[in-house]
Amino acid sequence: MRASRLARTLQYGALAVYMVFLGFPLVWMLSTSFKPPREMVEIHPTLIPHNPTLDNYVAAFTEQELGRAALNSLQVSLSSAVLTVLVALPAAYALARFKTKLGTAALGWVLLSQLFPFVLLVIPLFLILRQVDLVNTHAGLILVYVVWALPFALWMLQGFVRNIPRELEEAAAVDGATRLQVLRRVVAPLLAPGVVATSLFAFISAWNEFFFALVLLKSPDLATLPVTLARFVGVEGIARLGPLAAGSLLATIPSLIFFAFLQRRLTSGSLAGAVKG
Amino acid sequence: MTTLTEAPVARKPDYKTKARSDRTTIYLLLLPALLPVVVLSVIPLVRGIYLGFTDARAGRNVDTNFTGVENYRELMNDDLFWSAFRIGLVWTFAVTILQFVLAFGLALLLSQPLKFRGFARVMALVPWAMPPVIVGIMWRLVYHPDAGLLNEVLYRGGAEGLQHNWLGDFSTALPAVIMVGVWSGMPQTTIVLLAGLSGVPRELHEAAAVDGATAWQRFRSVTVPSLMPVIVAITTLDFIWNFNSFGLVYVLTAGGPGGRTMLPMLFAYEEAFRYGNYGYAAALGNVMVVIIVALLAVYLRRRLREANA
User: Fold this and answer.
1) CB of B24 within 8 Å of any CB in chain A?
2) What CATH number is attached to the domain comprising A167?
3) Number of structural domains, chain A?
4) Interface predicted TM-score (ipTM) over 0.95
5) What distance in Å separates the CA atoms of residue A250 and residue A54, rounded to the nearest whole number?
6) Searching chain B, which residue's CA lies closest to the CA of residue A252?
């Protein structure tokens, strides 16, 4: 495409503005996380710390509350991811390989459930979990996360199953392999990347989730990372901003890995249908 | 998702009949996934809608009575609700529209053969990779009246008079929060539009160029019309997500100062879990659903009519 030099210059200018807008908040948090307390109270803060320090990271790591919250988050997210995939795998296979109306119903539910505000869901969930004594337990939260991630995980996984040519399975069956052997020897290896992607998705949505964790977990001992960090926000003095920034950055790492993993496919548009807030 | 090429090989008939006899197996495979969704998603939702017509309150031994439209009558006279409702509409429309305009611009740029495009595409994803709570914390650092980036930039730029306690002042709190909402939701919109742009047939552009259309004319009469389905889909989704958004503003301002950023979701949360008025909060949720559906119906109908015109 031929664009004039002026147009090109304008385009680069606009792109630069976008990059500053998108990137600078993150750069600022990074800078804050390396500043010692004294620099935090300076009248005119600088972008590059005069005396960069790792103290904030050490504080974030050793701070009992944050460390425990990170462990809680890890436990909840890992369990949710494993459970989600275990439950979704057979169902995704069935949805992809056999025509059933349930597939359409499941997809419809994904869309419909987006429409309802969380309040409508969380109050009855709270009441139901209370009846079975699962309020204020990780088990209860994990259950909620699994259900929350399931529709999308199902949809993602069945797409991966569809991409495995049916003929491969049929060929193996003709050669005398049993159903189970077909699944283990043919389907499982080909499905592995899909399983990884889906469990990452389930892990991240649990790791980032805030609202349910806020409502369903009452004791600070059990709180997950987002809830603990959000609690910090209310009470932090200006000197505590450093550890807060450091802790926040550390808490972002898992999702950064996830996006680095999916980046190519996202920007090339092949996963564009898989968009969820 | 990627498409599956249709198999040229005729399916073995015996395999087909076997598949039919597998009905029970199918349901057994689906059951572990469907059961939890029904028990912990469908049932709670139905019960939540019902709660909106009761006087349910927090506490284990409180009786719940069906009260019909009582909650809604109360809502009509609740000034705080109307204020939250107004703020919610301003927030939702402002964020959705700005998100769309900015994301469209970015998507158009990213579809050009510019240098650094790969880097820019990665950068465009950054806000998406961050948990909403962290986004809130990060922007608090940017808006911080003393240690914040924004006030310092204004000072260095010689615009000291523009410095504000951004999240604390009555007049700037809502715009400041809206800006964060736009920032955090841009990636999804950008990526969907980018994918849509790559699907616009090249020949159409070339034909229009041959006919002497300017870049702007090509944009208006080729790009936008062929993108319309994508635009409608993503703005609709953005609208719903923004209307129901919670974590971001909870961390940024918790609805303050003086309720200036009290979105409907925050209001409902406070009603339910601070004051224990479950029934009233559920009623609020019901009203929110009805409003969203009504607004979307108007929007989608108009788009549909335009498409048919």
Assistant:
1) no
2) 1.10.3720.10
3) 2
4) no
5) 13
6) B130
